[in-house]
Design goal:
The protein is mainly α. Helices cover 81% and strands 0% of the residues.
Length: 277
């Protein structure tokens, strides 16, 4: 007579599908970050190597070691003053343009006839090269930080209005009619439906404005400035100090990256708050 011996039950340690998915997602994210860092290190090393081996002329293109050297010779307080000058102008222009752009988009969404009247003019203003208005801006508001901020606002605001308004107009008309049938006012529709539905569009608009704000600030400093990173770039190009030009450009890249990461952090918070995928 055979006796079947059952093996003792073993505790399963296998991961659930959700845990596997989260692990793969986390691993993929870490891999992408490592590749980004590796690519940056590789490009910096290649740049330095090309300069050392005379593949490129370091007098024209500079190189990382020369940038570090020129930064070490600049007075820290003076460099900080230039950075602060540009950063404040950029942040003010960014917030003013974003706030005014959203407000104008709300007004155009609220008043349909006004939107239809102004729409061609908005398109023309968007196509207009803003740098052409530089001399006029200087005459209107004066040669100073205010002119740079106005230039930044002009570059950002039209794009803000167009992108936000397109998002508002893309909201499902059926949902709007449903809220109207329930007695909701225009303001309630805006607060309860239009804006929550456009949170991703608003965040994407802020991301776009980060780049445009820096472009506008530097363009403004090209036209009129006595301090700032744009001023250092102009001064360095005039006296053929390309190391100073490249160092200022690198600092601009770092500041723009930090500002973009702040907006990306806001995006993560809004996704958690509104459960946006």
């Amino acid at each position: 007579m055979k006796i079947n011996k059952r093996l003792p039950c073993r505790m399963t340690t296998s991961k659930t599908p959700r845990q596997v998915y989260l692990w793969k997602r986390r691993t993929d994210k870490i891999t992408v970050i490592l590749f980004r860092i590796g690519l940056l290190v590789f490009l910096i090393g290649l740049w330095e190597l090309a300069a050392k081996l005379d593949w490129i002329d370091p007098f024209i293109t500079s190189c990382p070691s020369r940038i570090v050297k020129i930064l070490s010779t600049i007075d820290v307080s003076e460099l900080f003053t230039h950075i602060l000058y540009t950063l404040v102008e950029c942040i003010i222009g960014f917030f003013v343009a974003s706030g005014l752009g959203i407000l104008i988009a709300i007004l155009l969404w609220r008043f349909n006839k006004l939107r239809r009247v102004l729409e061609p003019y908005i398109v023309v203003l968007n196509a207009l090269p803003k740098i052409a208005l530089g001399p006029i801006i200087i005459i209107w508001v004066g040669a100073g930080a205010q002119a740079i901020i106005v230039m930044t606002v002009l570059i950002c605001i039209i794009v803000t209005v167009i992108s936000v308004l397109n998002g508002f107009m893309a909201v499902d008309e059926g949902k709007i009619l449903l809220m109207r049938s329930m007695g909701a006012s225009r303001f309630q529709i805006l607060i309860k439906l239009i804006i929550p539905a456009n949170i991703p569009a608003l965040v994407n608009m802020l991301k776009i404005n980060v780049g445009l704000a820096w472009v506008g600030t530097i363009m403004g400093e090209y036209l009129v400035s006595t301090a700032g990173l744009g001023y250092l770039i102009i001064y360095g190009s005039q006296v053929f100090k390309m190391d100073l030009v490249m160092a200022s450009t690198v600092i601009l890249c770092i500041l723009a990256t930090v500002m973009y990461l702040v907006v990306a952090g806001v995006e993560k918070l809004t996704k958690k708050r509104y459960h946006v995928e």
